[in-house]
Amino acid sequence: TLLCNGYIGCSPLYPTVAISIRTLAVFRQTHRVCPRLSIQAEVRKLCHMHNVPYHRYLADQYSMAYDVYLEILHRVDIRVKKAMQHDSPDWRLKNACPACFYKLEDEPPLQFSFMCQMDGNNSLKRTNAAVRRQEDRVDTRKMRSDYWLHASQVDQFKDEVKVRQSMHGKQKGMAEDDEDFDLDSDSNWVDDKSDPVSVCIERWKNAGPEQCKRMFALFDECGIFLSACRHGTVLLICDMIQSGELAKYPLAVVDKLIDVFGDDIAAAFDIGCTFEKTLAKSSLGPKAKTHHLRMVVGAFHGHAHNRGCQLNWHPLYVPGMGRADLEGCERIFSSSNELAATTHHASKFHRWQAIEEHYKFWDEDKYAALSTYMFNHYREALKIIQEGSAELEELKLALCLTDSDFNGFLEQERAYLQGLKKEPPEETLRFEYVEGLENLAKARYATVELVKSGRHISSCERKLEKAQATVERLEDQIGIEARWDDKSSEYQAARLKLKERKYRKALDELERLVVQRLFELSKLNVSGTGYKLRTQIAKALQRRSEAIKHALQSYNTLAAKLSPPRPLLSWKQIVDYSFLGEFELLRLSRDDIREKPWAQPANREATIKYLQLQRAHEEIERLNAEMRRLRTAVRDEEHETQCVLRKLSESTSRSDNLLALEVERRWAMRSAINAVHTQRLDRIKRWAGFTGRRGAGRRLGSVLPGECVGAAAEQDEIAEDIPEHNIEDEEEVAQQLEGMVDFVCQVE
Fold it and tell me: What is the per-residue pLDDT for 23?
């Protein structure tokens, strides 16, 4: 009776308090657009509106009614999916984004079937009940949606990456038999400094040893790891349980994506370079290789990787990637960070429920913004092609270059960077020996001066004895019979190399500080960063700037002392994050690269323009396919929905008739969004630079009901025959669409 009158009771058997469905619906929509709004805040608001003192039990009652409301919506959703035949396994995943997955029969092949991005975030933690001196209430309810990868699916990869003892011994305080110690097995590439990936392992926390990825016992769930398509639609989520960002999470995500989508997937990860090696050494390695999985690094994070890494994994240097930055996970987490305050102390089920609700609404927003994404990216790519083509042609004429030269420059640079090897151990000993000789000379001079002045200090004698012992030890290790002096050729050669070594160390320190500054700048702009944390980051940036200035001064001093002198750097150069990739070129090697064609600034600038132009053409090619997919999906969805509505309405079953009303209600909003998509796609189609096919196509492997096929074909034919002068004015169309949306909102 309560439900029929629009109310939900706060207890199942003998309710004394009921809350209107309208109130719950308003809170749900408000919470979806403002995740910070908690049930407690909503109840306090209602108490003030109704002049009722607030009590904690009122929030508990509201929460119970809200759970029932969401369960009703979930069960209705199941019935709608069944009626629409959207209840097959992985249906949501296969149809999450029509631009990515609604492939057509006659579309040209793309280098990558689709692009996704994945990353972890620790904002959505859940505090352990024992820490709060409470006991978790028994709640057998599970996660409702198929967004989640269950713990069992993730834990099958927990032993994929074997534990390996560090060269410097196990870290103190670490358990020896912890099952989550999944340190990457082959660390030969960690110790080999010539491998660009080794630099990333030192630089990125989530690329380092798994022993370091521990989380305080304060939390049960320490965050989430998710993947999304290039348009930002969330595909998969898994809980990071009592750990940091372990390798098992991305391994489980990759395994599921390959199972569902098959070949030619491009996956972006902020440590994609390191993870590709981890993946190759796991049991998923042959599977990933067979299905041609390609790991890349996001465009922004890629600038914090060293140059050798960028040339292999940055999207700018990977053919087929287009203009996608693949940094959508940061935008997703920027939104979900606002949800964190309501999940830290929630029960396990309520945390799942809140995350599911948030990302369902996020995906609805991403679908509504699909045509906007295509509109903006198509316009940007066309601008790059129109302006960049002329600029590149001028540079090619001025520098006497061809397109093949640019690809050759990249190959030559890769070969050079691979040749930068770590100094051999015997050379390190020689450097220590030269430094020992210098320290011994200083200690002798200080002792002689003290003797001349008639003083005797035992500390100077101890320093002299220690310096003498160090030199003798190094002579034994190296095998030097006659001690070097400042006139010997061996001493002079080692001293020259020692200068180069100090130069390299100064360069490494400068690069490290610039990278840290980049990371802190990115944190400063994250939505949800509190005032105190922003203040701390701002102070750290101020200190970092002073440290960078000192490191820059030290670098320039040492660079000038070399023969020939190395290029001096300015503050303006190093604060540009895109300069990070150039640090590798300043490192010394046996060959002087300053005269190499690929190292010339003008040639490097032309190469970048060439690559940007190539990626812009690839973006146009992919957008042409995605736009036609979206147009076809919009057409097919309309006719599929109309067929289902007709079938349910004509049924003699009362429940089917009611279900038809629910389908119609949902379709009202969806059709308004689809109308906006069609209008934007039509605008793009009329651009002078548009190169895609017009009209809709036919989904690969799909068969529409007989009555829908004829209607769809008829609509395509009519749409193609509309003359240009009959297209409605843009402002008039926008006003009509706004009216439709207002009407739908009123009905809702």
Answer: 95
DSSP string computed for 601-629: HHHHHHHHHHHHHHHHHHHHHHHHHHHHH
Axis-axis angle for helices 425-452, 458-478 (nearest 10) = 150
Strand partners, 219: 127
Distances (CA, A) of 291 to 113, 285, 315, 347: 11, 10, 20, 40
CB-count exposure of residue 394 (10 Å: 0-12, 13-18, 19+): exposed
CA distance 498 to 29: 66
User: Distance of CA 667 to CAs 17, 72, 634, 662, 711, Å?
Assistant: 34, 19, 12, 9, 18
Q: Tokens 């009776």 appear where? A: 1
Residue 138 to residues 128, 309, 347, 529, Cα–Cα distance (Å): 14, 49, 10, 34
Whole-model pTM: value is 0.76
Nearest to residue 634, comparing CAs of 424, 398, 368?
Answer: 368
Q: What ranges do the domains of the chain cover?
A: 3-84, 91-134+142-167+177-368, 425-604, 619-747
* Residue found by looking up tokens 């959508």 in the block: 328
CB atoms within 10 A of CB 405: 17
Report the amino acid identity of residue 231: H
Name which of 202, 318, 190, 219 is nearest 266 in CA terms: 318
Query: For residue 187, what pLDDT is reported?
Result: 35
CA dist 162 and 180 (Å) reads: 10
pLDDT at position 181: 32
The helix or strand, by DSSP H or E, that contains position 296, with its residue range, turns out to be strand 294-296
CA atoms within 13 A on the CB side of 186: 12
Helix locations, 168-233, DSSP H: 188-191, 196-203
**Residue the block writes with tokens 């503050």:** 571
CA distances to 177, 207, 267, 304 from 210, rounded to whole Å, are: 13, 8, 22, 21
- What distance in Å separates the CA atoms of residue 624 and residue 108, rounded to the nearest whole number? 10
Q: Nearest Cα to 598, choosing from 392, 413, 417, 394?
A: 413
Q: Which amino acid is at 297?
A: V
- Which of 231, 182, 232, 229 lies closest to 208 in space, CA to CA? 182
Nearest to 614 by CA among 396, 325, 394, 385: 385
Q: What is the separation of C-alpha 528 from the centre of its chain, rounded to a whole number of angstroms?
A: 18
d(CA 333, CA 466): 56
DSSP string, 535-600: HHHHHHHHHHHHHHHHHHHHHHHHHHHSSSPPPP--HHHHTSGGGGGGHHHHS--SS--TTSGGGS
User: For residue 325, how many C-alpha atoms fall within 13 Å in the half-sphere facing its CB?
Assistant: 12
Mean pLDDT for each consecutive 10-residue tract of the chain (748 residues)? 89 89 95 93 95 94 95 95 93 95 93 94 83 69 91 87 45 37 34 53 54 62 93 95 88 95 94 89 92 92 78 92 91 90 88 94 95 95 94 92 92 78 68 81 80 71 84 83 80 80 78 62 51 57 71 84 80 61 54 71 89 95 96 95 94 91 94 96 93 91 56 44 39 44 39
311: nearest Cα among 409, 455, 451: 409
Kindly compute the dihedral angle of the four CA atoms of residues 186, 188, 194, 198, in this order, to the nearest 10 degrees: 50
Amino acid type, 189: W
- CB atoms closer than 10 angstroms to residue 98: 23
CB 15 within 8 A of CB 2: yes
Spatial CA neighbour of 617 closest among 116, 264, 111: 111
As a whole number of angstroms, the distance between CA 127 and CA 146 comes to 24
Contact 128, 346 (CB under 8 A): no
For 320: left if phi > 0, alpha if psi spans -120 to 50, otherwise beta; the answer is left
